[in-house]
Design brief:
binds pyridoxal-5'-phosphate, single chain, Lyase, Ornithine Decarboxylase, Chain A, domain 1, TIM Barrel, alpha/beta, six-stranded antiparallel beta barrel, elongated, eight-stranded parallel beta sheet, 28% helix
Length: 364
C-alpha cells in the first residue's frame, strides 16, 4: 500500500470559484491565472474546471505549450512577457499574447521578423515597482509599440500592490486612468482581491485576472475568510493516522518536546510532514480535521509525520482520515488560509509548495 497521503483537486470547486469571479465582474472577461503550475494544483488537473474562462494567464512558455496541448485554442497571456528574442517565435507559433513591460522587450519586437502580428499587453508600473513602464514613460512606450508593424493590438494593464489591504487601489487607479485616458485598447487591472473587493465596472474593466480566488483561498484573509467570499477549496490535502499514542501528564510530543500534556490524552500520528509541503513552522494548536472534526496539531512537524490531538474525536484511531486543509469526507472545510496563518504565510505559498512526492487525484 502506498503511504496514506493524498491531495485531491476539485474541478467543481474551480468551476464554482470562476463563476463567483464572473458574478463580481459580470461585464469583464476572465484571465484564469494558472502560473506556477496552476498554483500547485497542476495545469492538466485544473483545465476542465477552468475551461469556461476566456483565457489563461501564466509566465512560463512551457506551461503555455501544455495549455495548447490540452486543446485550448483561446487566448493565452504571458504575464511577464518574453525573456529573449526567440521566445517571440514561440509566441507566434503558439499564438500567445504577451506582456511588454520594458524597453528591451520592445527592442526584441522591433528586431523580430514575424508574419503574424503580435498582441501585447503594455504594462504600467503604477506604484507596485515590480514590472512596467513608469507613468511618465508609458505613453512613449505605447507610441513606439504602435509604430511597429510587428504589433497588431495593444492592450493596457497594471497591477495593484494593495488591493487586499488598507491602502487600497485608489492612487494606482487614478494614476492608470490619468495616463491611459485617451488611449485605445482593452484594459486589465484587477487580481483576485481587486475583483472581489472593488466591484465597479471601471476597476473590473475588460479583463480581470483572478488567481488565488479560483483556487478557493481568500485574497484578503483574515479580513475575509474564503467562505465569506463564497469560495470553495479546490485542493484537499488529507492523510491517515498511522499510529496512536496514549500519553500521561508530563509526557512530551515530538522533536524538541515542544508540547507537554497536562492530562492523560490520546494522540494520532499522521502520515504528513514538511517533506509533503506541510509547513514545519506550524505550531501546536494549528487546526486540522480528524474524521471531519476540528482538532489541533501537537508539537513540532517532522519531515514525514505530525501529531494531532484525538481528544475531540474519541472514536478516531488507526487509519482515520486527517484533513490538513480542504474538505473532509463529511463535508467539513478547513480553509488553507487558516493553516497558512498559523505558519505566518498565505494560502498561496502552501498550495504552491505541495511536494512532488504527494500523489494527486482529480476528485469531484
Ligand atoms: C499572479 C498574478 C495575478 C493573480 O493574482 P491573485 O492575487 O492570485 O489573484 C494577476 N496579475 C498578475 C500580473 C499576476 O502576476
Amino acid at each position: 500500500m502506498p503511504r496514506p497521503i493524498l491531495a485531491t483537486i476539485h474541478p467543481a470547486a474551480l468551476q464554482h470559484n470562476l463563476a463567483r469571479n464572473r458574478q463580481a465582474a459580470p461585464d469583464a472577461k476572465v484571465w484564469a491565472v494558472v502560473k506556477a503550475n496552476a498554483y500547485g494544483h497542476g495545469i492538466e488537473r485544473v483545465f476542465e474546471g477552468l475551461r469556461s474562462a476566456d483565457g489563461f494567464a501564466l509566465l512560463d512558455l512551457d506551461e503555455a505549450r501544455r495549455v495548447r496541448e490540452l486543446g485550448w485554442r483561446g487566448p493565452i497571456l504571458l504575464l511577464e512577457g518574453v525573456f529573449e528574442p526567440r521566445d517571440l517565435e514561440l509566441c507566434s507559433r503558439l499564438d500567445l499574447w504577451h506582456t511588454v513591460h520594458c524597453d528591451e522587450q520592445i527592442d526584441m519586437l522591433a528586431a523580430c521578423k514575424t508574419h503574424v502580428g503580435h498582441r501585447v499587453f503594455l504594462k504600467m508600473n503604477s506604484g507596485m515597482n515590480r514590472l512596467g513602464f513608469s507613468p511618465a514613460r508609458y505613453r512613449s512606450a505605447w507610441a513606439r509599440l504602435n509604430a511597429l508593424p510587428q504589433v497588431d493590438e495593444i492592450s493596457l494593464m497594471t497591477h495593484f500592490s494593495d488591493a487586499d489591504g488598507g491602502q487600497g487601489i485608489a492612487a494606482q487607479m487614478a494614476c492608470f486612468a490619468d495616463v491611459t485616458r485617451d488611449l485605445p485598447g482593452e484594459r486589465s487591472i484587477s487580481n483576485s482581491a481587486a475583483s472581489l473587493r472593488y466591484t465597479d465596472a471601471v476597476v473590473a474593466s475588460d479583463w480581470i485576472r483572478p488567481g488565488i480566488s479560483l483556487y478557493g483561498s481568500s485574497p484578503d484573509h483574515p479580513e475575509h475568510m474564503a467562505g465569506d467570499w463564497g469560495l470553495l477549496p479546490a485542493m484537499t490535502l488529507a492523510a491517515k493516522i498511522i499510529a496512536v499514542q496514549d500519553i500521561a501528564p508530563g509526557a512530551s510530543v515530538g522533536y524538541g518536546s515542544r508540547f507537554v500534556a497536562d492530562a492523560p490524552m490520546r494522540l494520532g500520528v499522521v502520515a504528513c510532514g514538511y517533506a509533503d509541503g506541510y509547513p514545519r513552522v506550524c505550531p501546536t494548536g494549528t487546526p486540522v480535521l480528524v474524521t471531519g472534526v476540528r482538532s489541533r496539531l501537537l508539537g513540532r512537524v517532522s519531515m514525514d509525520m505530525v501529531a494531532v490531538d484525538l481528544t475531540p474525536v474519541p472514536g478516531a484511531g488507526m487509519g482515520s482520515e486527517v484533513t490538513l486543509w480542504g474538505r473532509a469526507a463529511n463535508g467539513m472545510v478547513l480553509g488553507i488560509d487558516e493553516v497558512a496563518q498559523a505558519a505566518g504565510t498565505l494560502g498561496y505559498e502552501l498550495m504552491c509548495a505541495l511536494a512532488q512526492r504527494v500523489p494527486v487525484q482529480v476528485g469531484d
